[in-house]
Design brief:
6% of the residues lie in helices and 49% in strands. It has 375 residues and is mainly β. It has three domains: 137 residues, Immunoglobulin-like; 107 residues, Sandwich (Immunoglobulin-like); 107 residues, Immunoglobulin-like.
Length: 375
């Protein structure tokens, strides 16, 4: 009934001499996957009076009405303020964005699939309804960092491992601040933001120390960044410029900072770097499940020959490598833990290289059976 009324209003307005009004949802785009929270925004045209409000609907239910600020004047196409905003490079579909522009609605829904519709109304009551936009909303990823190899020296890189939880079907660019006593690139090779590729839960940031160094230890602190990038849009018709803030599509978790120490002298024989990439922290499995465990290793001056897998202090399996690998080449070791018992488990890996050096990974806690319902 409500949609019939909207159509009737639009028909009466057209008969009265109004131009055919139109409204479209510009963000998010149809068929996209987005993280929550996000902001909905529209483009419009054809109204002969001031556009006063836009009401948004998700799966047929109203989720908010946004009034006219700054004022959007009549136009035969998308008004000037929106034209200016449209020139800002479009963010990825997975980005979380906040637009301080006309008729933008901040929305923080539960994860799920939604059909979105916008209803625009001008000062004379003329209405226009957008075409449906179908989107999938996924939780905001949480990003953490640990120093999997906290000591770096010439020829022996340090290693930060940045990990994410949640949605992994797309690339995720992670911004970070790198705090050192000298500028980035002085005591080590310059590093920049990294991308966790689609399907992966982590990526490494290597700190390659430069030589020679003074006889001292330098500190490199990596902190996950979550700052907005402000972009301003000037408009002839708006009272003030529109502000667009692009936020990274993730939230920093704990720990969000880690430290690598650069030493002047080579470490000599040192433990390889090892970390578990599967299963993910907090993952839940049914009782008796077969759990695939993957340990990623890298050794700067040799190669890893064996990885042992532990549940706490209990050895549950091993994976061997009899092939010589060039130093610095990543190698993954896999093991399947069959018929895993119910409970909370702290999984970790122990890597041994061809020189006999040993290194343990950080523990990853998983839940099996009824323990999967515990926090």
């Amino acid at each position: 009934m409500r949609r019939i009324l909207y159509f009737t209003f639009a028909l009466v307005a057209a008969l009265a001499g109004h131009a055919q009004p139109m409204v479209d949802i510009l963000y998010p785009t149809d068929g996209s996957t987005v993280t929550t929270p996000l902001s909905l925004r529209v483009g419009w045209g054809g109204f002969t009076n001031v556009l006063e409000s836009v009401e948004y609907f998700a799966n047929g239910q109203s989720i908010g009405i946004v009034s006219n600020w700054p004022i959007a004047y009549p136009a035969t196409s998308i008004p000037e303020p929106q034209l200016e905003i449209s020139r800002v490079p479009a963010p990825p579909a997975s980005s979380s964005i906040v637009f301080y522009s006309p008729f933008t609605l901040y929305w923080d829904p539960s994860p799920g699939d939604y059909a979105l519709i916008a209803l625009a109304t001008d000062a004379q009551g003329v209405m226009a309804t957008s075409a449906p936009v179908n989107v999938s909303v996924v939780p905001m990823p949480v990003v953490t960092v640990v120093a999997t190899q906290p000591i770096a020296s010439p020829g022996s890189p340090g290693d930060f491992t940045i990990s994410r939880t949640g949605y992994t079907n797309s690339d995720l660019t992670v911004q970070f601040d790198l705090g050192t006593y000298a500028a980035n690139g002085i005591y080590h090779a310059s590093v920049s933001n990294i991308v966790i590729p689609a399907g992966a839960v982590s990526a490494d940031v290597l700190i390659n120390a430069k030589a020679p160094l003074a006889n001292q230890t330098e500190t490199v602190i990596l902190t996950i960044a979550n700052f907005p990038v402000p972009l301003y849009s000037k408009s002839k018709t708006a009272a003030s410029p529109s502000l667009v803030e692009l936020y990274p599509p993730y939230m920093p978790g704990s720990p969000n900072s880690a430290t690598v120490y650069i030493e002047a002298k080579a470490r000599g024989r040192h433990g390889p770097s090892v970390k578990l990439s599967q299963p993910r922290p907090g993952q839940r499995f049914p009782s008796g499940a077969n759990i695939g465990i993957t340990a990623n290793t890298i050794d700067a001056n040799g190669y890893v020959t064996a990885v042992d897998f532990f549940d706490g202090v209990k050895l549950i399996g091993e994976s061997l490598n009899t092939t010589s690998i060039s130093p610095g080449v990543p190698v993954a070791f896999n093991f399947t833990w069959t018929n895993a018992p119910a409970g909370s488990h702290a999984l970790r890996a122990r890597a041994m290289d061809n020189l006999g050096a040993i290194q343990f990974s950080t523990s990853v806690r998983v839940f099996v059976g009824s323990a999967g319902r515990l926090r």
